[in-house]
Amino acid sequence: MANFIVLLGPPGAGKGTQAEILSENLNLVHISTGDIFRENLRNETELGLLAKGYMAKGELVPDDVTNEMVRDRISREDTREGGALLDGYPRTPDQAQALAAMLEDIDGKVLCVPYIAVPASVLVERLSGRWTCPVCSTPYHPVSKPPKVAGICDHDGAALVQREDDKPATVKNRIDVYMENTAPLIDFYQKQNILVEVDGTQDIDQVSADLLRAIKARM
Fold first, then answer.
1. What is the pLDDT of residues 63-106, one digit of tens each?
2. What is the dihedral of CA 152, 155, 156, 160, to 10 degrees?
3. Least packed by Cβ within 10 Å: which of 96, 165, 188, 215?
């Protein structure tokens, strides 16, 4: 049976970083929703063109389209045999139920759902402090990754800018929306006794260690 890990965490929790660390340590394919969408759009698949039509109108891509993209990816040989780490999917209980049906078709199951928990106040501080180079797109943060010269990119000397979606009010709204939409998903997996909460306020190495320990305990 192929085991799948569903990694959950709000914006700013470090989910992307941890997903890479976990997939390498556990020798699991890392599948992110963003990668799946980009692949389908780049290859102009039928699903990609369908999604592009919704995106061009500024509409959310419907669940059935997203679900089919995920189904196509997890049905490939690498994941049918060895499972995968899912990052960014599912986002709702409906998607979680769709995933369960997909996995049943390939003799797979969700083994564990690690949730990187970080208080909203910490997330706002992390995300709203981000500044970006408009030339090379290198991100900076006054606490975790300050530039050598305040306000200036280390690589090309360009003046750093703060994107609209990195401003405090926008960040708070993103987090509120995530928490509201994800709370039912957390409850969905808690009821199955496969959700494991990890303190995401710790340093990266400690979060990684806690995640790996929690996942391996389920294997």
1. 999 999 999 999 999 998 889 999 999 999 999 999 999 999 99
2. -30
3. 165
- Specify the amino acid at residue 75: S
Q: Is 174 a catalytic residue?
A: yes
- The residue annotated as part of the active site, out of 15, 52, 109, 145, is 15
Both tokens of 50, joined, read 């369908």
Closest by CA to 67, choosing from 100, 110, 30, is 100
Q: Which of 38, 76, 145, 163 is an active site residue?
A: 163
What tokens were used for 10?
């709000």
Q: Which helix (H) or strand (E) element contains residue 192?
A: none
- Amino acid at position 90, single letter: P
Rg of the chain over Cα atoms, rounded to whole angstroms, equals 18
Give the three-class secondary structure for 14.
coil
Catalytic, out of 52, 71, 91, 109: 91
For the full predicted model, state whether its pTM sits above 0.90. no
Cβ-contact 195, 113 below 8 angstroms: yes
Picking from 104, 73, 101, the residue whose alpha carbon sits closest to that of residue 86 is: 73
Q: How far is CA 122 from CA 14, 96, 128, 129, in A?
A: 12, 28, 10, 11
Crossing angle for the helix pair 63-74 and 33-42, to the nearest 10 degrees: 90
80 is catalytic: no
Give the amino acid at 218: R
